[in-house]
Known about the structure:
alpha+beta, 5 helices, 10 strands, single chain
Amino acid sequence: MKKLIYLVLLTLSLPSFARQFDIEVIIFKRDLNPEAMMEQWPKILDPINLDRAISYRDNQMMVRNGAALLASSDYQLQAQYNQLKKHAAFTPMVHVAWRQGDQGRSRAPVFHIQAGQDFSETYLADGRSKAEVAREQVEAAVELTVNDTNSPLSNELAFDEQSADAPLYELDGRLQVYVQHYLFIETQLDLKKPGQRKTMLESEPVEIESPEPVSSAVSTGVQIGHLEEIAPVYKIEQYLNTYRMAQKRKMRSSETHYLDHPLLGIIIQVRRVAQ
């Protein structure tokens, strides 16, 4: 009965003359330590554009955007999912399938992908550890007037309270499949992993001994005194690092495609629905 409802909704949401595709996606992570890998990870990432993005868990929004979830009985990549689940080096995070038409990039549904652990109790949205921020605020409070509502401390506390309840998922981003002469998949997915970062606090001068005086015969008349070299001071702090998978891939229907990344992987199969 549940499967029949999906098919009825799909029939109502898509015109009969349009090509339709069943799309099945598995997203998994590699259980590796990014800090031990020989990779150069970007330190600054632009926010992912989630305009028009909808959750694949919202059936009504799916239908409004010309798509419909498929029942798990329609999955054809279950064997691959089971193999990933049994493998010690991989952890599957998403397995979903839906049906959509052959819309172009501007009209095809964009899916907001969220999965995995919610880090919002431990970290802020900018990656800082809540425990370390709280400790810094306590230290700063000693030097600030507690009742001064215009102090930098009060402003930072207000900011942290506003962002405290927002979920911070381990996997977050967007995925879209569309037709533009060929089938394409576009992904922008952020994987968050607890780790560390090194930040510079201040610089301390280091005194350097002046060299032996030069002979008066070759002296330029410039007196060399004690020089100071600036030595940066760093601290290591707990931090929620973000690693992005941004790819665009041309695909063929009925084939299984694999998108690779040092920390993530996507298996996708697009099957054309017989008219």
